[in-house]
Write a structure and sequence with these properties.
The chain has 242 residues and is an alpha/beta fold. The protein has one domain. It is built from 10 helices and 5 strands. Strands 2-1-3-4-5 form a 5-stranded parallel sheet, sandwiched between helices. The radius of gyration is 18 Å and the shape is globular. The two termini are 26 Å apart. The N terminus is likely disordered. InterPro entries: DCAF12, DUF4062. Keywords: Repeat. It comes from Candidatus Thiomargarita nelsonii. Pfam families: DUF4062. This is DUF4062 domain-containing protein.
């Protein structure tokens, strides 16, 4: 019999700290509740891992943000959702390098000027640390979903909207990095959806994500398995920390 951990889907959400609040709200309010309901009917646990709401300022300042993100990507593999707008995101600060790179020395080899979001995607999809088997790398490519927001969306925001102001402050060099990251993901063969506004994710995420979960857990549990799952899931929910 499969345990609750074996019958569990954990999805890592990767995006910048800024500029994606509305997208994450759509996922939390309109997508994940329905995914969770469908999973429950199938005897599968569902947990979304969005560390934009789960890492403290102190952890960021001490350089723990990147290691925590990488550990959670490992815990969630092969499920991964990447959201990219025009804002490139923050990089590792000089005082954070030692701790951030302690277990991931490859970051020092040409990635210190990359955003934390790009590091997450590089670690997950391109296995920069060379820690995964070919089968695991292929599974991540197959299960990952990426969503690229229309650059013109920023023009629909009011002049005084903070997100618009943040984007206008982005250096040209970082805009170039963002475009190169998007192209790199396209070239890698990832499943990518373009969208015009945050609410579009309601339709664009739900069914593709469910299709991948359905592929991973096509079987319906027996009555005994369901009872065991309900019991284990309740106990597990009391000790899960993410």
């Amino acid at each position: 019999m499969k345990t609750v951990k074996q019958r569990e889907v954990r999805v890592f959400i990767s995006s910048t700290f800024r500029g994606m609040f509305d997208e994450r709200e759509v996922l939390v309010r309109h997508v994940f509740p329905e995914i969770r309901r469908r999973c429950f009917e199938r005897g599968v646990g569902f947990v979304e891992v969005d560390l934009r709401w789960g890492i403290t300022t102190e952890q960021v300042d001490l350089g723990f943000a990147v290691p925590i993100c990488f550990q959670q990507i490992d815990n969630c593999q092969p499920f991964f959702i990447g959201l990219l707008g025009e804002y490139y995101g923050s990089t590792i600060l000089p005082e954070q390098v030692e701790e951030a790179c302690r277990d991931y020395p490859w970051i020092k080899q040409g990635y210190l000027d990359r955003s934390i979001t790009e590091l997450e995607m590089t670690y997950a999809l391109f296995d920069a640390g060379q820690t995964r088997s070919p089968e695991q790398r292929q599974a991540l490519t197959d299960k990952a979903l990426f969503y690229f927001r229309d650059p013109n969306y920023i023009e629909t925001l009011p002049e005084d909207e903070k997100e618009r102001q943040d984007y206008l402050k982005v250096l040209a060099a970082n805009r170039s990095k963002q475009q190169k990251l998007k192209q790199r993901l396209r070239d890698h063969g990832c499943q990518i959806f373009d969208y015009k506004q945050p609410i579009d994710l309601k339709e664009l995420v739900l069914e593709p994500l469910w299709a991948k979960i359905d592929q991973a857990f096509p079987d319906t549990p027996t009555l005994q398995e369901q009872e065991d799952f309900d019991h284990d899931a309740f106990a597990f929910s009391r000790q899960t920390v993410y």
